[in-house]
Amino acid sequence: MPESKGRDQAAYVPPPQKRAQKVKTGNAAWFTPVMLGLMIVGLLWVVTFYITRQQYPVPSLGQWNLGIGFALILAGFAMTTRWK
């Protein structure tokens, strides 16, 4: 029985894969302080409103001071959904 001839070409070797660059995960350096700052300022705003018997932080706003305080707190909590 005849023998098969050897190959003249080398076997196919795929090119090496490019290493994927590491993707930076996490947030910017300013993100966490702003998030915590909003929650703390909102809390202080509401506490100040109650402790001063609704005279401060802005007397002309009246009950809207509560809305401002809670809006600041909610903005901080909304930022926690993007925190990594």
TrEMBL record:
Pfam name, any one: CrgA
Stretch forming the signal peptide: none
Cellular compartment(s): Cell membrane
Transmembrane segments: 28-51, 63-81
Stored InterPro entries: CrgA (IPR009619)
Membrane topology: Multi-pass membrane protein
Main location: membrane
Superkingdom of source: Bacteria
Alphabetical keyword list: Cell cycle, Cell division, Cell membrane, Membrane, Transmembrane, Transmembrane helix
General function of this protein: Involved in cell division.
Family: Belongs to the CrgA family.
Name by which UniProt lists this protein: Cell division protein CrgA
Organism this protein belongs to: Nostocoides veronense
